[in-house]
């Protein structure tokens, strides 16, 4: 049994659960222990004690730990990528790529540990010196989702450690395997006991203890809007710092002047790869009428060429949906779209394969408008809608007409429209001739409106959340 990791030791939890392969539901990937509230409090207590010493650690100590973790992740990317594919359903190449990204993130923050800086300023008062420095918050609670089970934990854990914090990490209950593997690697990195702790289990138990415990000074969360709102209300109620990454209903505009081949591949990659289970997925394809029919035909042709099958099989483009509940939600939205009057132009059927799993053919709706539920609510599956518009101005207006604001894209060969779009897209990230899903690990990630709250994740901007600023005055 794979155990929780608390105070430098692996320990059994109160209960356990099987981790099921969504590509082959007869396979148990592993058995993982689950913490209760008492064990979670223990993890928080030891993290609180360990945070004091780690906050005083040297840049070299932090570099060595983070670099060691990154090196092992990269060396084992094929092995861990297969584990990721088995437990979450991403294709094997995607799983390997995500694991490599996790390694690169730890390597990046190893470098950041050596670049810790502050400011020395002149005072308006004669003889007084001023220093401005960043200090660790203390204990950081990290709650991550199932769709990126190793990359998202990496981009939260690495900066937390880099900036001198201690960590209590709760991976998604649905995919504990990658979280445990990451904890196993961290356990051999030289990090002092108690600085990093893994508590697997249900959000209503483990997550709630993290949210309400006064020793947790900051909570970084990625997940659903409803849970994010609960995180916000709970943390605000006790004046704890919090950071939220939630949903998206991301638009991709395709203009008449776009390179059609680029536009089709951009749309299909962004909307359907990783089974559409990305908060940055292109779920609304907004197409001007001059190229609409040609674009629809080309997208359908591309979808016909995609292989949906076991995530570990050769040549697979799309793996299964993560579990039965998510598949049921996807199918419900496909039904809702048809009831709203949208045309299901391709896919949307549950598929049978050699191994029993949660397979769904990518679904494409046409003849939709932006008021339909399928264009307002996040589906989180391989489902996309096409909205026909007259021109760029209407396209931009519809693209921005959403409660979300994570990622937004456009396909065009016009510098004028590309430049205007970058300025006026109401989203945290704007893509030109690139999928809305897919960002580099060394630049800020995050959105606006209902998609995100708080400072950005990743890159040097991560310091904003994981540190607090102290201003010191001295009269020599």
TrEMBL record:
InterPro entries attached to this UniProt entry: Ald_DH/histidinol_DH, Ald_DH_C, Ald_DH_CS_CYS, Ald_DH_CS_GLU, Ald_DH_N, Aldehyde_DH_dom
Protein name: Aldehyde dehydrogenase family protein
Keyword set includes Nucleotidyltransferase: no
Entry annotated with the keyword Oxidoreductase: yes
One Pfam family recorded for the sequence: Aldedh
Active site, UniProt feature: 245
Domain Aldehyde dehydrogenase: 16-471
Family: Belongs to the aldehyde dehydrogenase family.
PANTHER family per UniProt: ALDEHYDE DEHYDROGENASE-RELATED (PTHR11699)
Keywords: Oxidoreductase
């Amino acid at each position: 049994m794979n155990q929780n990791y608390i105070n430098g030791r692996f320990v059994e939890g109160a209960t356990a659960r099987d981790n099921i392969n969504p590509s082959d539901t007869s396979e148990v990937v592993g058995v993982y222990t689950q913490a209760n509230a008492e064990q979670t409090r223990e993890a928080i207590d030891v993290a609180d004690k360990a945070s004091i010493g780690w906050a005083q650690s040297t840049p070299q100590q932090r570099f060595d730990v983070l670099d060691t973790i990154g090196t092992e992740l990269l060396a084992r990317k094929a092995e861990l990528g297969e584990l990721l594919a088995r437990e979450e359903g991403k294709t094997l190449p995607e799983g390997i790529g995500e694991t490599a990204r996790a390694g690169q993130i730890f390597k990046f923050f190893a470098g950041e540990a050596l670049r810790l800086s502050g400011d020395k300023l002149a005072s308006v008062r004669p003889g007084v010196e001023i220093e401005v420095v960043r200090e660790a918050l203390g204990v950081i609670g990290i709650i991550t989702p199932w769709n990126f089970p190793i990359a998202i934990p990496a981009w939260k854990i690495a900066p937390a450690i880099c900036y001198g914090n201690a960590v209590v990490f709760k991976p998604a209950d649905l995919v504990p395997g990658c979280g445990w593997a990451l904890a196993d690697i961290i356990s051999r990195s030289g990090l002092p006991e108690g600085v990093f702790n893994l508590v697997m289990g249900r959000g209503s138990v483990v997550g709630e203890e993290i949210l309400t415990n006064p020793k947790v000074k900051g909570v970084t969360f990625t997940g659903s809007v409803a849970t994010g709102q609960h995180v916000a209300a709970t943390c605000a109620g006790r004046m704890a710092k919090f950071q939220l990454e939630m949903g998206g209903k991301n638009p991709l505009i395709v203009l008449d002047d776009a390179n059609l081949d680029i536009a089709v591949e951009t749309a299909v990659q962004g909307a359907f790869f990783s089974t559409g289970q990305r908060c940055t997925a292109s779920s609304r394809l907004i197409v001007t009428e001059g190229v609409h029919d040609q674009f629809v035909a080309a997208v359908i042709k591309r979808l016909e060429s995609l292989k949906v099958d076991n995530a570990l099989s050769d040549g697979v483009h799309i793996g299964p949906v993560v579990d039965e509940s998510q598949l049921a939600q996807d199918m419900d939205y496909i039904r809702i779209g048809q009831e709203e009057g949208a045309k299901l132009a391709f896919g949307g059927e549950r598929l049978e394969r050699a191994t029993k799993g949660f397979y769904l053919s990518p679904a494409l709706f046409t003849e939709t408008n932006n008021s339909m539920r399928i264009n307002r609510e996040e589906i989180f599956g391989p489902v996309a809608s096409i909205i026909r518009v007259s021109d760029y101005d209407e396209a931009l207006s519809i693209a921005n007409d959403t409660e979300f604001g994570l990622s937004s894209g456009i396909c065009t060969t016009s510098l004028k429209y590309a430049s205007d779009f970058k300025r006026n897209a109401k989203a945290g990230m704007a893509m030109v001739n690139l999928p809305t899903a897919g960002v580099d690990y060394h630049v800020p990630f995050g959105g606006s409106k209902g998609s995100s709250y708080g400072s950005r994740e990743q890159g040097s901007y991560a310091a904003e959340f994981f540190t607090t600023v102290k201003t010191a005055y001295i009269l020599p």
